[in-house]
Amino acid sequence: MKLTSDGLAIFNARYAAKDDQGQVIETPDQAVARISQAAARVEKDKPSRSYWQGIFADMIDRRWFVPSTPIWANMGKPSRQQQPAACFVLELQDDLQAMYQTLLESAMIAKYGGGIGYNFSPIRPKGDLIRTTKGCASGPVELIRLYNCSAAMIKQGGIRQGAYMAILDCSHPDILDFITCKNTGEISNFTLSVGISDDFMQRLARDESWELHFGGRTRKTMPALELWQSILAMAWSRGDPGLIFLDRIQEANPIPSRPLRATNPCGEQPLGHGESCLLGSINLAQMLENGSEDIDWQRLGNTARIAVRFLDNLIESGEYPFDYITENTRASRKIGIGIMGLHDLLLRLQIPYDSLEGRKTSSRIMAYIRTEVHAASAELGLEKGNFPLWEQSIFVRDHSPHRNASCLTIAPTGTISVLAGTEGYGIEPIFAVAYSKQYIQDGRTKTLNVFSPLFLAACKERGISAADLKDVAARGSCQNAAGIPEDLQRLYKGAREIDPLDHLAMQVELQKHVDNAISKTINLPAEAGPEMVDHIFRQAWEQGLKGITVFRASSIPGVIKVGR
What we know:
Layout: H1 5-15, H2 28-40, H3 46-61, E1 65-67, H4 69-74, E2 87-89, H5 96-111, E3 115-119, E4 129-130, E5 135-136, H6 140-153, E6 155-156, E7 160-161, E8 164-169, H7 175-179, E9 190-196, H8 198-205, E10 209-214, E11 217-223, H9 224-238, E12 242-245, H10 246-251, E13 262-263, E14 270-271, E15 276-283, H11 297-317, H12 323-332, E16 335-340, H13 342-348, H14 356-384, H15 414-420, E17 434-441, E18 444-451, H16 453-462, H17 466-475, H18 486-491, H19 500-511, E19 522-524, H20 530-542, E20 547-548, E21 550-552, E22 560-562
Parallel strand pairs: 2-3, 3-8, 8-9, 9-12, 15-16, 19-21
Antiparallel strand pairs: 1-15, 2-15, 4-5, 6-7, 10-11, 12-20, 13-14, 17-18, 17-22
């Protein structure tokens, strides 16, 4: 497995097996064999296990497909729980004992690398009477603070602090407190999203009032626009909250009788209570024909099909923290195959990310992946049986076999993109031509300096001078840079140099071909006003997205600095 120096550093820090003194005792090749064996061990006989282990190992070794962090960190290690899932959703109940039980279960999930999402809407509003004690309820925001403190204490799988998603329905009486709860800076381990209904968006469009209610009683009536403007102000000022379009998610639910009310921390995977989902991404940067600038469609299709079997096998061979999670996960058998390195591929094809051709090419790729993935799941359904809840699913209408209730999810792929050596994470464009990024390793803050290898290779072919490149590195951008040809400037735009509506258009185009959702940030320039957030949020709902997140440059301090 050929890794860059940064990829090897990530592997050693986060994925490699270690001895009792914390020293690395595993190479990347050995880790590939370990996780491939873990996936193959559920095959029917020894020849089949040997065959599929080799197929899985070859796919991962070539970096055609890269599994998510929990698979690397847990699977096949004798000293760890064999926990392969990245995404979990847990249900909250308005009961003190149940709240703390869920907190305990969350800690055990986070211990082995799982990210967790919750919908806090069942929690009674702040100040409501507690009949048993005659006291007053603390409300959902205080419960979020409690869970946040727990997350800060738990380093996920020895990799990072716990990551959680908090959703509150737009009709909850505490929604205004929820929207602003990160202003104090103490809630750092949660992503926030407002659960938006179609009813709210329609009332907003008609400039009507909106009711906040709980327990069958209306607690407050306010203009829908007032609530909307509060959301816009916070999203503009600090990037939180995003929006989750709950009706849209439920409309796409493959098992309608099991409601979807929450997602994982990055928002791309809606799940029911006690479900988990396994993730992995196809590396589009490796999907060009050898020696040419054409997409290798056969390699792409084969990789997609093998990835389905790989993740489905791990559902079976995996171990989960609690029996009910095992039962719910195997009842729906949800997997999330996504993509990474989309911008890398477009750059090699010399297609600008923010162009109609870029979106059409990306859409064609994702549509092809969807066809192959669904075909593979259907074939597995015939071979090994449909997922147990198939008879309650939408697939029973036309007697369509399916091994997995859902198959496609586009995750952010931050860490595994470094492992794979891609410059574009998930469907994101490159962040900048040159930037520095801080990260924590062994308790120390380190800096990673990046100067786009693809850009440098293109400049080398054109004979661009070292002085011109030095200027680009200092600014972090090649736009309007002396000595850089216009066609390269057109191609090598970073995330902040792409129009927000082009970001949105790419997400909309790919969502058409994705079962679940897409983790994507709509980058806004520092000078953008709340009216731009307003336009993007409304367009996201009108154009069929399941969720939307924005981030305005310089709105809050970050760990990434453009330029070097």
